[in-house]
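Reminder: ligand-aware prediction takes two inputs, not one.
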Amino acid sequence: MTETPLLSVRNLVLGVVRRGRPSTIIVDDVTFDVAQGELFGIVGESGSGKSLTLRAIAGLLPGGVEIISGSVEYKGRNFTSMTSGERRALMGPEIAMIFQDPMTALNPVVRVGEQIAEGPRRHLGLSKKDAMDLAISMMAKTGIPDPIRRAKAYPHELSGGLRQRIMIAMALSCRPKILLCDEPTTALDVTLQHQVLGLLEEMCANFGTALIFVTHDLAVVNETCKKVAVMYAGRIVESGPVRSVLRDPRHPYTKGLLDSAPDFDHPDRMLKSIPGFPPNLANRSVGCSFAPRCEFAQPECVASSPQLEEVGPDRLSACFEKFTIFEGAHA
Ligand SMILES: Nc1ncnc2c1ncn2[C@@H]1O[C@H](COP(=O)(O)OP(=O)(O)OP(=O)(O)O)[C@@H](O)[C@H]1O
Ligand SMILES: [Mg+2]
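Here is what comes back for the chain with adenosine-5'-triphosphate:
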């Protein structure tokens, strides 16, 4: 018998709703499971629907974007049929989120220590003092030097790297079962990015927290995640274990992403960008959304849209061509 996944996203469709009617479908039929403690990446170009998928899971969709159909189940309970109060009670102790820009998520007029302590006070019922002690120990765990002094700082008094650590301390302070990360290191320099990724991985392992990590950067997925879903134009076009997907991509879009990313093991390799642009989601064609940019496209790719099919152990790809290995696939 297989274990019930911690989180199960089933046939999720998100759309822009105008005057009560869906006008544009922006996330289409997205399905994936995340098990306890699993490190799951979602990768794709700008506009592919990564952030909105994550926000739908967190119940933080922006105004005008709604779940049209499908479900998000957490421990077998359907989010979409919960009241907003039930939903809010899960945020913090069960599910936490880290955003790309900590300044948008931190309150500029509250000292950072108090901001971290607020969750444990509210959700774990800790006293003010115990919550502050926990906040300071979380700050220390994220490697913030002199946490007692820094806890009294306001967000603008800290560097970008320290603010991102505060966000991590805040998100993990109630030991959530799932941490949703939306490009949490994109604004940091490479050294800091490396440190923060290592920290996230270590803390998730210590707390048994599952991670859903959204990024446009395959190198970051490679460093941080064990499983990956590749999104293009609102759909998952390929998924599977990270090592196997990156070594042996089965979808031409994944191959395009790999060919356009620097390869430090083979610095002489020519980088190749994917020609063209992502499609306008308001005018979806009946065929594969990637066909107009795909060097392998056949007439059938324009006539109908390929569905995700099994292409190997734990591997799915939505492509009519059943590639086994692309020439020049990354080792
Ligand atoms: N509030 C909104 N109203 C209408 N359309 C939106 C809204 N937010 C996002 N979109 C559209 O939905 C699509 C997916 O957006 P999303 O933010 O999920 O992309 P993304 O993959 O996270 O991209 P990026 O890498 O740039 O962050 C985009 O085409 C975007 O223009
Ligand atoms: Mg985004």
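The radius of gyration is 21 Å. The chain has twelve helices and twelve strands. We will return to this case in the review session.
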